[in-house]
Amino acid sequence: MRALIIEKHGEPSAVVSLRDLPEPTPGPTEVRVKMLLSPVHPSDLHVIRGRFARQRQPELPASPGSEGVGIIDAVGSDVPQARLGERVVLLNVQGTWREQVICPSERAIPVPAAISDEDAAQALVNPMTAWTMTMVEHSLARGDWLVQSAAGSAVGRLVLQIAKAQGFHTINLVRRPEQVAEIRELGGDVVICTAQEDWPEQLKKAAGGEGIEKAIDCVAGRTGATLARQLAPGGRMLVYGALSSHRQTDPAAFEMPIFAPALVYSGAEVRGWFLYFWLQRKTVLESGEVLRSLLEQMAAGRLKPSAARRYPLDRAFEAFSDTERTAHDAKPLLAFAQP
Ligand SMILES: NC(=O)c1ccc[n+]([C@@H]2O[C@H](COP(=O)([O-])OP(=O)(O)OC[C@H]3O[C@@H](n4cnc5c(N)ncnc54)[C@H](OP(=O)(O)O)[C@@H]3O)[C@@H](O)[C@H]2O)c1
Asked: I want to staple 78 with a disulfide (CB 3.0 to 4.6 A). Which of 28, 157, 224, 238 is the partner?
């Protein structure tokens, strides 16, 4: 079977190679999944560069990849034979950029027939992030308001769909003027372009009252700092990314200068949020339930991941560069051989 492998950290085009490896055999409680599609997320590129969270950096050599969809083509002796042929998504299984992935059977979650392979391949990382931050951490209720940065991102677009279904309102930040109309079209109540110099004033006006009650930010830098400064008394912002630091090479852009009085006098909170930290504190049964409910929402047409584009393994480098291209219009998916 073919696998994308890294033996050392560096730029993806320099360190990722396509290798032939022996077919793996599942242990008694495991299944083997013949992969169909696996996305390239910004965080996968951080893993390749050796800049991701330490606890998520695999020992090398390793295959990158954090989720995907495939078909069970072998089962261990303790797993029912009836699972053979099931189409599944992988729940928190690392190393998905290979034609065959071995995982514990309880981490292979069945996919409803109504969901396309493209959507199923993206069912975990971004939908679970969008859902957990909004509905669990922020407990947004009908009529509440949420401010989000990078509203055009895959996560941002999922948040807009959850807002529509759950009845909360959104104030959205985008960096390109042409995205304003698009995000409004997707249901964003207020859309502000950070390319306009007076965007902090526009945000203040839109938030009204004493400021921002609830926010999520994946840009950090000046954008994150401005949001933090406008938090209302008791307001709360979850920081879940740092896109300001392009390719994570500019340490200064990771910084978010916090205006201390805004926090001190208001008791506001700025907190990090990391899917894998959240998953670590859940049992497989609990996180599996969340994933199953997201799959149900997708099957019912209430939640749709980003448009996607397939790249065969021998064109993986194009997928890597497209992941970081400004104004990319689709989530790159690595496409494995069809069963
Ligand atoms: N903490 C977690 O557990 C967790 C989980 C999932 C995702 N994330 C993070 O969430 C972020 C979005 O992920 P994704 O998969 O949704 O990404 P994506 O679909 O690739 O979208 C990236 C978006 O960010 C925008 N962007 C890029 N650099 C920016 C900057 N410097 N300032 C403002 N906007 C910028 C892009 O705007 P243009 O359209 O203008 O190019 C694009 O809309 C990433 O940082 C990712 O690592 C974190």
From this structure: 28
Centre of ligand 1 to C-alpha 178, Å, is 17
Our count of domains for the chain comes to 2
> Residue of the nearest CA to atom 18 in ligand 1?
153
| Ligand 1 contact via 216 beta carbon (within 6 Å) | no
pLDDT tens for each residue of 254-272: 888 888 998 999 999 999 9
pTM for the model: 0.97
Candidates 134, 153, 216: which one to mutate for ligand 1, based on the most atoms within 8 Å of Cβ?
Answer: 153
pLDDT tens per residue across span 236-257: 999 999 999 877 788 888 888 8
Compute how many other C-beta atoms are within 10 angstroms of the C-beta atom of residue 8.
10
CB-neighbour burial class of residue 318 (10 A; exposed 0-12, middle 13-18, buried 19+): middle
81 lines ligand 1 (CB under 6 A): no
Confirm whether 278 is domain-assigned.
Answer: no
Domain identity same for 169 and 56: no
- Residue identifier of the C-alpha nearest atom 29 of ligand 1: 243
Q: Is the CB of 131 under 6 A from ligand 1?
A: no
**Rounded alpha-carbon distances, angstroms, from residue 26 to 30, 77, 92, 257:** 5, 9, 17, 49
